[in-house]
Amino acid sequence: MKAKTIKAVLAKKHAELVESIDDEHIRQLVRKNSIVTGGAIVSMLLGEKVNDFDYYFADIETVMAVSKYYVAKFIELNPDKQKPIVVTTADRVRIRVQSAGVTSEGQESQYQYFEAADPLEATNYVNEIMGIVKDDIAPDKPLYRPTFLTDNAITLSNKVQLVIRFYGEPDEIHTNYDFIHATCWWRSKDGHLELPAVALQTMLARELVYSGSKYPIASLVRARKFIQRNWTINAGQYLKMALQISELDLNNIEVLEDQLTGMDVAYFQQVLDYIKDKQEKDTSFKLDSAYLIEIIDRMF
Questions:
Q1: 209: which residues sit within 8 A by CB, 6+ positions away?
Q2: Whole-angstrom Cα distance, residue 181 to residue 2?
Q3: Which residue of 3, 125, 241, 276 sits 20 to 30 Å from the alpha carbon of 75, by its own alpha carbon?
Q4: Model's pTM, two decimal places?
Q5: Averaged over 119-129, what is the pLDDT?
Q6: Of the candidates 210, 95, 215, 212, the residue with the CA atom closest to the CA atom of residue 155
């Protein structure tokens, strides 16, 4: 797909999202301070189906306001679910759900912030991503409603994820990204689309090049999805991921939880819950890799 068409698709998607917001202050923040980056632009360039549009925001004020807005919407739409709360610090916004860690509209919702579902064939591709065909549509519910909340992101119906873990200008956001090909971006305030040459080169070659990440375990697992789609990766990229993983203290439950939440908490919440329960019952218990391996084998 050509750059001009991609810009049109993103502008239309963004206009739909903004129009769905019923708070004027939040609407203006999202209209001006949004950045779309990651897999959606890659999929459009390669003519593949877009799994979702990953939204980031330019500043923490927007992240905070958007988080509070959609948490309130989730509670309004799902009064029988556990009530999440927004927790803020000087440099971070989190969504907390007591005991569960995540909450969703339905029992089968899956958090796909880092690890997207397997792609389908690109049938009627442009029509679908332009919004003529929509997913998660319910006649009696809002088009862009919050369906799944985690520490790091808010999933909306109709293929939108609002990432609250990181914020800033595109260059700042991409310091947290893993693979070079995903660093194309679109900015809402001026409609600018950036397609870095190095990203385009890795896409053309379908080659994974690792640039470092705050979530190297997620990157390691995520790589297999691309391999299933006929991308390649050399041993040096795995070594770079291994070096970053070696710097993590995964025997610290807070570090482990952050790393697993960065990947897919739907897969690993049982592991985390089991370890936390063990620690609460036995204050002398210390987590180590042998015990963790045993629990992972049981759970999987």
A1: 179, 180, 181, 198, 202, 237
A2: 17
A3: 276
A4: 0.80
A5: 36
A6: 95
Residue 105 or residue 231, greater confidence: 231
Domain boundary among the residues 168, 201, 234 is at 201
Sign of CA dihedral 52, 65, 81, 151: positive
Q: Are both 194 and 212 inside the same structural domain?
A: no
| pLDDT of 33 over the 90 cut | yes
Q: What domain range includes position 86?
A: 3-201
Distances in Å between the Cα of 149 and the Cα atoms of 14, 102, 141, 157 are: 20, 6, 17, 12
Sign of CA dihedral 200, 201, 207, 208: negative
Question: Is 194 found in the same domain as 66?
Answer: yes
Q: Which residues contact 161 (CB under 8 A, 6 or more apart)?
A: 52, 53, 54, 55, 112, 113, 153, 154, 155
Residues 20 and 162 grouped into a single domain: yes
Strand partners for 37: 185
Same domain, 42 and 167: yes
* pLDDT score of 262 more than 70: no
Dist. CA 173–CA 190, nearest whole Å? 18
Q: What is the pLDDT of residues 77-93, one digit of tens each?
A: 888 877 888 888 878 89
Domain count, the chain: 2
- List the structure tokens of 38: 């990651």
Tell me the mean pLDDT in the region 209-235: 91
The count of C-alpha atoms lying within 13 angstroms of the C-alpha of 183, restricted to the half-sphere facing its C-beta, is 26
- The verdict on 181 and 56 lying in the same domain is yes
- Average pLDDT of the chain, as a whole number: 83
Residue count (the chain): 300
Final residue of a structural domain among 182, 201, 220: 201
**End-to-end Cα separation, the chain, in angstroms:** 40
Contact (Cβ atoms closer than 8 angstroms) between residue 90 and residue 193? no
